[in-house]
Amino acid sequence: MIFQRVNRTDAEKVFTVVYNASGGAFTTGQVLQYDVGTSADGIRVTTPAAAGLSAFCGLASAGIANAAYGLAQVYGYCSTASVKPDITTALVAGVIMKPVDASADLSCAASSPDGIDASDGRMGFIVAMQTNTTMTTPLASAHKVFIRAL
């Protein structure tokens, strides 16, 4: 793990080393999920999938090529989280963000106004720190979030 040096003017951040086993590249701010199953080793990450959405690792701190090592941010403020807005529910600051199946983006839970969906274990890792409107055709873009996946 890499802990950022204490600096009064910068938010605290923590990073961990990961290995991209997804078959494709990750870009800055995209969601990483630990590889689950027989190849699980605590360092391999992949694109989130339904069977392992609770194995959220963190957000890519920079681009990570396929079959390469990189850093995942696992704690602290991040201004580059890849968020895909919902088509019916506007994103509100303070809501819980969740990884999305078969996507390297985050989304808010549309099931309740505060973004909390207690029916699964994917809640509480990331909190939105800005608002965004709905989109008819959602496109992922960089958003401010706070990560608590340490």
Task: Describe this protein's structure.
- The chain has strands spanning 2-3, 13-20, 31-34, 44-46, 56-60, 69-83, 96-99, 106-108, 126-128, 141-148.
- It has 150 residues and is mainly beta.
- It has a domain at 2-74.
- The radius of gyration is 15 Å and the shape is globular.
Write the layout of secondary structure elements.
Blueprint: E1 2-3, E2 13-20, E3 31-34, E4 44-46, E5 56-60, E6 69-83, E7 96-99, E8 106-108, E9 126-128, E10 141-148
Parallel strand pairs: 2-4
Antiparallel strand pairs: 1-2, 2-6, 3-4, 3-5, 5-6, 6-10, 7-8, 7-9, 9-10
Summarize it.
The chain is mainly beta and 150 residues long. The protein has a domain at 2-74. The protein has strands at 2-3, 13-20, 31-34, 44-46, 56-60, 69-83, 96-99, 106-108, 126-128, 141-148.
Question: What tags apply to this protein structure?
Answer:
mainly beta, 10 strands
Helix content: under 10%
What is the H/E string? EEEEEEEEEE
Question: Biggest sheet, in brief?
Answer: 5 strands, mixed, barrel
Distance between the termini: 10 Å
Mean pLDDT: 85
> Which class do the helix and strand fractions yield?
mainly beta
Low-pLDDT windows of residues: none
